[in-house]
């Protein structure tokens, strides 16, 4: 019982940290876009999107997974076409 509670808390803490790290990286992506710092902005957005996709997986939230999978596909297509 105690072990499963500790695992749940560890998972919750890891998800919390991932959520905030991915958010901060995406904010950095917006900032680098504002200052014209390509392609750094794209790489930051990719890291943030992957982070938020992982959060969606951990939360079992299909809406979060869907929107970030679509964004990743669009960014990947854009990178390949440029």
UniProtKB/TrEMBL annotation:
Organism: Litoreibacter halocynthiae
Record bears the keyword Transmembrane: yes
Lineage, broadest ranks: Bacteria, Pseudomonadati, Pseudomonadota, Alphaproteobacteria, Rhodobacterales
Protein name stated in the entry: Ubiquinone biosynthesis methyltransferase UbiE
Transmembrane segments: 40-59, 64-81
Keyword Transmembrane helix: yes
One matching Pfam family: DUF6552
Keywords in alphabetical order: Membrane, Transmembrane, Transmembrane helix
């Amino acid at each position: 019982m105690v072990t499963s509670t500790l695992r749940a808390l560890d998972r919750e803490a890891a998800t919390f940290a991932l959520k905030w790290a991915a958010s901060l990286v995406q904010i950095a992506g917006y900032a680098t876009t504002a200052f014209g710092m390509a392609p750094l902005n794209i790489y930051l957005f990719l890291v943030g999107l992957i982070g938020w996709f992982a959060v969606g997986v951990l939360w079992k939230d299909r809406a979060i997974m869907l929107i970030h999978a679509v964004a990743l596909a669009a960014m990947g297509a854009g990178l390949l076409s440029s």
